[in-house]
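Give me the fold.
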Amino acid sequence: MKLTILGGGGFRVPLVYSALLTDDDRLIDRLCLYDTDPVRLRVVESVLAQMRAAHPSPKPVKVEVTTDLPTALTGADFVFSAIRVGGLESRIADERRALALGVLGQETVGPGGIAYALRSIPVALEMARELNRCSPEAFVLNFTNPAGMITEVMRTELGHRVVGICDTPSGMIRRLATHFDVDDNRLTIDYVGLNHLGWLRHATVGQRDLVQELLQDDDGLAGFEEGRLFGVDWVRQLGTLPNEYLAYYYNNRDAVAAITRQQQTRGEYLAEQQDRFYRQVTQDPEQALARWQSARAEREDSYMREIRDGEDAGNEHGGGYEKVALDAMHAIARNERATMILNVANGSAIEALSSEAVVEVPCLVDAGGARPLAVRRPDPAQLGLMLQIKHVEQLTIQAATKRDSGLAWEALSLHPLVGSTTIARSLAERLIS
């Protein structure tokens, strides 16, 4: 089967290739990397060649690279969308513009997420249309952020053949299972939310609820990622484990202040690191894999450091999305039923949201794609925030497709992390002209 990665020159592509190389079933035997930047493509191709040499196999995964979109999409069985429209330069501009106005400068949450979506939605739509022309039965696993919005807009062209993937919920569940020395596949999960805005309420095995057990364990919760990030008392007050991105909502002023104090925004840090990596490998391709491994370790250790009181994140955020994606491909291609948390159309899972609204919930995945499982009703605070953010997301989608600065202004004004129509108008005028 052929897998195409849109954004194939991206830094995280080797994580996907590593998962393919270690897949005993060898579901994918052709990997096509598509990117508009041929230099980045050559660098990633060098990294993958050295990974392949380190994992010899009688059934190797053949790698192709191209800058031609129809070539990349033709014959594809699966497509990973991992594009960054505007590059890190646009991310930096989003972050700095927001911070200069005193509001959150972050890639996917708040004004940064809206700006990112406004750039990405038209491109994602065109890619979806091209896929329908070239490979009308292919499934898309969307990693492009903001994953909820991009998945929702791609569904207008692809229907059930696109699902959104984020590794944050699965990573939290994996860490919880490891903490209690339980196989995460045995857990029954109660998770509800939108992309980068969700809550793990229960994780049961037999008669045990591991979430509630953790909440009662002083030392365990204090050492757990969410306990360190949000504070033990607040997590207990909530009675649930919040998605780490909720720190930007629960501690918004603290987060803005902490980010403002940094010499670099996250985008500036990544731009500097990636420029160095791609330049070094271009000059010395023999060291491609070693350079990538070193840069990856540095990147993981600095993840969300600005709101973690200077702590290193360690390896808790070192990938994971590639495993979720591989499991989803197996379930679809082999009709191997699996349950995983994905971004899909709501259907009737959350009564207060429309059926087409994309939500992040446990799903049953098989040859028919991914379908949301029934979830318990969110509590009033959870539901209220979800309704407000979903409305903002849908206004943003309309603004992007209609190129309407008024709708962009409305979306930014109604986002709880902006809090000013004046600031929102200043941001919107720069985003859609």
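The first strand starts at residue 2 and ends at 6.
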